[in-house]
């Protein structure tokens, strides 16, 4: 467009910065939580006209904003498709994740995430992190109460670290379109590491999945005397 839309001057503001409303964080289901560019970044982009909507924030206003965000009381939250293109946006995103102490269902699809190992989600029972850039189970957040975990379309190469979920109530795991899916005896290895798992990649646990992973390998061996 060769002209600016009326909302153009608000495009870098979060809902907390817009006046005359009382919407709280736990009322949102699919919020955009990206941090806006810094004043220096806006100046370099020649978008300093947006600064007129910003003002010096006092400590009291910061505390009121924190109360308005109210992430601590979210039970279900979808933070997918955030387009975290800058480091300050990633850091703000992780700041919010650290506050999700009561979340039970969380979607973080397609956020280019690589490492959330410093995040703990103590009550999370369902986590969807499809279409991110995780390379290892060690890079996932701490999720001691997890029951359903979806990791489709990441870059997990091996099953190393999967046994960390042995002591969780994990029932369903999706690893479709990860390199580890092509590992020999993939299903047997997963179920042997997670005896309580009931479903893998949408397929229930089958009798042939229960055999020890080394038995079939032993049958393929040929001993020459």
From TrEMBL:
SUPFAM superfamilies, sorted: L domain-like
Q: Which InterPro entries match?
A: LRR_dom_sf (IPR032675)
Q: Carries keyword Oxidoreductase? A: no
Q: Which domain of life is it from?
A: Eukaryota
Q: Does the keyword Repeat apply?
A: yes
Q: Which keywords does the record carry?
A: Leucine-rich repeat, Repeat
Q: List the PANTHER family hit by this protein, alphabetically.
A: GENE 29133-RELATED (PTHR18849:SF4), LEUCINE RICH REPEAT PROTEIN (PTHR18849)
What is the designated name of this protein?
TILB protein
Source organism: Piprites chloris (Wing-barred manakin)
Q: What is the phylogenetic placement of the source species in the record?
A: Eukaryota, Metazoa, Chordata, Craniata, Vertebrata
Task: Quote the gene name from the UniProt entry.
Answer: Lrcc6
